[in-house]
Design a protein that fits this description.
alpha+beta, about 180 residues, 8-stranded mixed beta sheet, 3-stranded antiparallel beta sheet
Amino acid sequence: MPPAVEKGPNVEGSQAAAVLVPLYEADGDTHVVLIKRPETMRSHRGEIAFPGGKFEAGVDTDLRATALREAHEEVGLSPDDVEIVARLDGIGTVATRFTITPYVGILAGPPVLTPNPREVERILEVRLSELLDPDAYREERWDTHTADFDVHFYDLEDETVWGATARILTSFLAHLVAGR
């Protein structure tokens, strides 16, 4: 198990996981790499996500290594091409019982990415300016039998980002706009 300091908030009985928030500059804008999961996946079918996955004891030295390994497995991004510049606050997912730690990584330029067809249906390279457009963002209040909570959405040209990925994006963009 990775050190507790790296886990972030925990959901009881959850598994540690990490994602990479890969950023690069091109055409005068910063882009973030997202993936669309195939409908054949056991969980998060068809959802937009960051490259990432479960911590594997005996394989990963820490959650940073998990994020880099998963990005390499899912989209062919070499860990040597990523400069990790920040670790964001972790988040817990109740439905799938993960505690996700996001790492922000800077790439020297537009990457050559190759989707792993078992885990990635499509790679999206989204301009941050598109995500920061007020018309792209919306929030809904979901009331369930156990809790009420806000759900974030980013409506892109042909996809919608929501769930844990949208929560991570919202946190990242808030830090970015605040200049922290």
